[in-house]
Specification:
Layout lengths: L3 H4 L28 H8 L5 H42 L3 H26 L1 H11 L4 H26 L1 H7 L4 H12 L2 H18 L5 H24 L3 H26 L18 H29 L5 H27 L15 H8 L3 H28 L12 H21 L2 H10 L3 H26 L3 H25 L3 H16 L10
Helix pairs in contact: 2-3, 3-4, 3-10, 3-11, 3-13, 3-15, 4-6, 4-8, 4-9, 4-12, 4-13, 5-6, 6-9, 7-8, 8-11, 9-11, 10-11, 12-18, 12-19, 13-15, 13-16, 13-17, 14-15, 14-20, 15-16, 15-20, 16-19, 17-19, 18-19
GO biological process, one term: xenobiotic detoxification by transmembrane export across the plasma membrane
Main location: membrane
GO cellular component, one term: membrane
C-alpha cells in the first residue's frame, strides 16, 4: 500500500508537450491523481467553517471545470450537428420536420446507443493497457473495436433499409413513415462513421487527449452548416441531402481524428500501425462490449420509444413536430449535464478504476472520503443551478423558440404548451445524470441498470401511454409519463447517495485497486 504522500497527486496531469504520452505511475503504486489540498482544507478544524467551505468550493470548482468544460463543449457541438439537420429539414415543412425527428429519434438513436455503448468497452481495455505500460496494445484494441463495431453495423444497415415497413408496422402514418425512410437512407454511412469514431474517441481519452477532438468537432460544425445549406436549399436535395451531409460530417470527424493519431507525437507509442492481431479475440471483445451497451441503451431507447409512441397519436404530424422541437432543445442542453457526468465517468482512465467517476473515484482511491462526498455536493449544486437558468430561459422564450425549427404557427402553439414540461425536464436533467455518474463512480452499475428498467419501462412509458391515450392528453401526457419515470429515478438515486457511507466506499475502492494490482496483462491478450 502506498504512503499517504504517494496518494496525493494532481487530479489530472496537464497535457505534455513532449512527443510521447506522459509516463503513468504503476498500478501498484495506488496513484489516483488528486489534489491533496481539498482533503486538507476540509479536515482543517482551525479555520472558520465558512472560510473552509469557501476555499474548498473554489478548489473543487477548478478541478471539476477542468474536467467538465472540454467534455461539455464536444458533446454540445456533436449534438448541435444533429439538431441543425432537423432545423434545415423543419424549414422545408412540417412533414419534413416530423420525418427527420422520427428518423433521428426513432431509428438512428437505436444505432447510436448501441455503437456508443459497445465503443465504451475500449475505455476498459485501453485504460488497463495504458496503466500497465503496454502502450502498443492501445492501437490493437482500437482496431479490434473498429472491426467489431463495423460488423455490428451490417445488421444495423438492414434495419435502416427496412425502416419504412418497420415504422408502418409500429402504426406510424404512411406519409410520415415514407418521408422518415428517405431521411434514414441517408444516415446509413453514419453507422460506419460511428464504428470508427467511437473507438478513436476512447483511444484518445484513455491518454487524456481531449483538445484535438474539440477543435475537430468545432471545425466540422462550420463545414456541416455550410454543406447542409447548399444541399437542402441550393441543390434542392431535401431530406436525403440533409441526412447525407450529416453522415459526411461524422466521417470528417472520424477521419480527422485518425489523421491526428497518425501525425501526433503523443500517439507514437500507442499507435504502431495496422496489425492482424486486431482480428483475434473478437468474441471476447463482443461479450465485454455488450455489457457496456446494455446500460446505455436502456437510457437512450427510452426517449426513442416515447417518440415512436407520439407517432401513434390522433394528429401524429403535429405531435411529432412539437415533441421534436422540445426534444431537440432538451438534447442540446442535456449535453451540459452529460459533460458533468463525463467528469464523473471514466474519460481519464489512468486512475485505473475503470468503471468509476473521475472526481469521485479519484478521491475514493486516494482515501479521501470527505473530498469524495464534497465533490458529489458541488457537482450536483453547480449542475442544478445551470439547469434552473436553462429552464427560466426556455420559459421566457416559449412563444418564439419553435421558429428556429419551423415557421408553422400551429407547431409554435403546441411547443409553447409543452415548454413547462420541458422546463421541468431540464431541471431534472441537471441532477439525474450527475447522480447516475456518482452511482457508477461507486461501482453500482447493476443497481443503476435495475433502477433504469423499473423507472423508465415499468413506470414512465406505461404512465405516458395512459395519460396520452386513455386520458386524451396527447403529447403532454406522454411527456408527463417520461417526467414521472425520471422523477422516480432521481429520488431513488438521491436517497442512495445521501445514505452512502463514504468511509466504506474508500475501503472498497482500495480493495478493488489491490485486486487489480496483480493484473499486469491486458484483459484480452493479443493473438
Amino acid at each position: 500500500m502506498a504512503s499517504q504522500d504517494d496518494l496525493h497527486q494532481p487530479i489530472l496531469n496537464e497535457d505534455s508537450e513532449q512527443s510521447q504520452p506522459p509516463e503513468p505511475e504503476p498500478i501498484s503504486a495506488g496513484v489516483h491523481g488528486v489534489d491533496s489540498r481539498l482533503e486538507k482544507m476540509l479536515s482543517d478544524t482551525e479555520l472558520p467553517w465558512f472560510k473552509r467551505l469557501r476555499l474548498a468550493t473554489w478548489i473543487e470548482l477548478k478541478l471539476l471545470l477542468r474536467l467538465a468544460a472540454p467534455a461539455v463543449f464536444v458533446y454540445m457541438i456533436n449534438n448541435f450537428m444533429s439538431l441543425s439537420t432537423r432545423v434545415f429539414a423543419g424549414h422545408l415543412g412540417n412533414l419534413e420536420l416530423a420525418a427527420a425527428s422520427l428518423g433521428n429519434s426513432g431509428i438512428q438513436l437505436f444505432a447510436y446507443g448501441l455503437m456508443l455503448g459497445m465503443g465504451s468497452a475500449v475505455e476498459t481495455l485501453c485504460g488497463q493497457a495504458y496503466g500497465a505500460h503496454r502502450y502498443e496494445m492501445l492501437g490493437i484494441y482500437l482496431q479490434r473495436a473498429t472491426v467489431v463495431l463495423t460488423l455490428t453495423g451490417i445488421p444495423m444497415t438492414v434495419i435502416y433499409v427496412l425502416s419504412k415497413p418497420l415504422l408502418l408496422l409500429l402504426g406510424e402514418s404512411t406519409a410520415v413513415a415514407s418521408a422518415a425512410a428517405v431521411f434514414v437512407y441517408g444516415l446509413i454511412p453514419q453507422i460506419f462513421a460511428y464504428a470508427v469514431n467511437f473507438p478513436i474517441q476512447k483511444f484518445l481519452q484513455a491518454q487524456s487527449i481531449v483538445a484535438p477532438s474539440a477543435y475537430i468537432s468545432a471545425s466540422t460544425l462550420v463545414v456541416h452548416l455550410l454543406l447542409s445549406w447548399l444541399a437542402v436549399y441550393k441543390l434542392g436535395m431535401g431530406l436525403i441531402g440533409a441526412s447525407l451531409v450529416l453522415s459526411l460530417s461524422w466521417w470528417i470527424i472520424a477521419v480527422a481524428q485518425f489523421v491526428y493519431i497518425l501525425l501526433s507525437g503523443k500517439c507514437k507509442q500507442t499507435w504502431s500501425g495496422f496489425s492482424l492481431q486486431a482480428f483475434s479475440g473478437l468474441w471476447k471483445f463482443l461479450k465485454l462490449s455488450a455489457a457496456s451497451a446494455v446500460m446505455l441503451c436502456l437510457e437512450t431507447w427510452y426517449f426513442q420509444i416515447l417518440v415512436l409512441i407520439a407517432g401513434l397519436l390522433e394528429n401524429p404530424e403535429l405531435a411529432l413536430d412539437s415533441l421534436a422541437v422540445c426534444m431537440a432543445i432538451n438534447g442540446l442542453l442535456f449535453m451540459v449535464a452529460v459533460g458533468f457526468n463525463a467528469a464523473a465517468r471514466p474519460e481519464h482512465i489512468r486512475v485505473n478504476l475503470l468503471e468509476n467517476s473521475v472526481r469521485v473515484s479519484n478521491e475514493l482511491g486516494a482515501g479521501n472520503p470527505k473530498s469524495a462526498a464534497f465533490s458529489v455536493i458541488i457537482v450536483n449544486l453547480l449542475s442544478f443551478v445551470i439547469a434552473v437558468i436553462e429552464a427560466v430561459v426556455v420559459l421566457a422564450l416559449r412563444h418564439v423558440i419553435s421558429y428556429a425549427f419551423t415557421s408553422g404557427e400551429t407547431v409554435a402553439e403546441a411547443v409553447s404548451d409543452l415548454c413547462p414540461f420541458l422546463a421541468v425536464t431540464l431541471v431534472l436533467n441537471g441532477v439525474q445524470p450527475v447522480l447516475s455518474g456518482v452511482a457508477v463512480g461507486c461501482g453500482w452499475q447493476a443497481f443503476v441498470a435495475y433502477v433504469n428498467v423499473g423507472c423508465y419501462y415499468v413506470v414512465g412509458i406505461p404512465l405516458g401511454c395512459l395519460l396520452g391515450f386513455k386520458f386524451g392528453l396527447g403529447a403532454k401526457g406522454i411527456w408527463s409519463g417520461m417526467i414521472g419515470g425520471t422523477v422516480m429515478q432521481t429520488l431513488i438515486l438521491l436517497w442512495v447517495t445521501f445514505r452512502t457511507d463514504w468511509n466504506k466506499e474508500v475501503e472498497m475502492a482500495k480493495n478493488r485497486l489491490e485486486k487489480w494490482d496483480d493484473k499486469k496483462e491486458p484483459l484480452m491478450k493479443s493473438g
